[in-house]
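pipeline: protein-struct stage 2 | run 1193 | Putative glucose-6-phosphate 1-epimerase
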Amino acid sequence: MTTTDDGTAPQEVPHIQRIEVNQLQCLRIQTARAELLVAEQGAQVLRYQVHGQEPVIWMSEEAAFEAGNSVRGGIPVCWPWFGDLMRNPPQVQALHSGGRLPAHGLVRGIDWLLQESAIEGDSVRLVLAIPPTTDSPSLRHLPAGLELRLEILLDDRLHLNLTTRNNSEQHIALTQALHSYFAVSSIHNVAVEGLEGQRYIETLEGWAERQQKRELVISNETDRIYLDLPPQLAIRDENWKRRIRIEASGSTSAVVWNPWASKARRLSQFADDAWQRMLCIETANVMEDLIELAPGEAHSMGVAMWAEQLGG
Ligand SMILES: O=P(O)(O)OC[C@H]1O[C@@H](O)[C@H](O)[C@@H](O)[C@@H]1O
């Protein structure tokens, strides 16, 4: 039998393993090509890295992996509202009055339930769902019967698909995001492709509407909501000679965020210089791209991400 350097039997790939990272129960997936780590809390992707390459997804060196707190980095799920509830469309605000109203909604810090895990050839599929709203203290103000699940598929790419099903008896409105923290060689050496000519809301200057003239380069604190987007965006990274492709479905809005130096000092689980190594491009349904569902209706928002060599 072949053994690895530490004398243990090599594990077949793909495989799915349960591990604990500090206080969090996680699923670690290895395929011949890549590694993926997903926390049951928040159904949060914590790591996505193709073997031998720089990580696609950034994780904070100061991440705490604590129960009840969203981890800084990875891909938090924001639902059923994005950002500050008071900045959301009135239909979304109307649904929430009681209980805590934290930024980015209610599901980042709660345990999701693993509903499916399957190895299909060289790929691995997981499905996680929030608990029934009536069972969860944090969700009990939501209409009974509102369901949310995240399907995660790892093949040559990472695919996430977030589905809301309104099995309640009332009309609902929500905003949401897959809050992806991408890893970059240096924020000073990347450009975001695909935003040229698009409308955006500059949240740092009174939520004024602007138009993106050229390709976006980040040169100061950035917190913008882009609207009417085509499905394909990309981060071109000259130092790492790669382009991260980001392909959205069921979404025409995206949030682009980098805190830059001064806000970085005020963020939790975030090193003072970490802003140079990350860039959030968050596939979203926000502002006028909100989701409205009559009883019985469902909506899926997805993102696929992968890295290509520059020039390829
Ligand atoms: O610290 P949090 O709640 O994870 O939010 C981080 C950032 O998330 C981004 O999506 C927002 O646009 C920013 O305004 C916010 O600062």
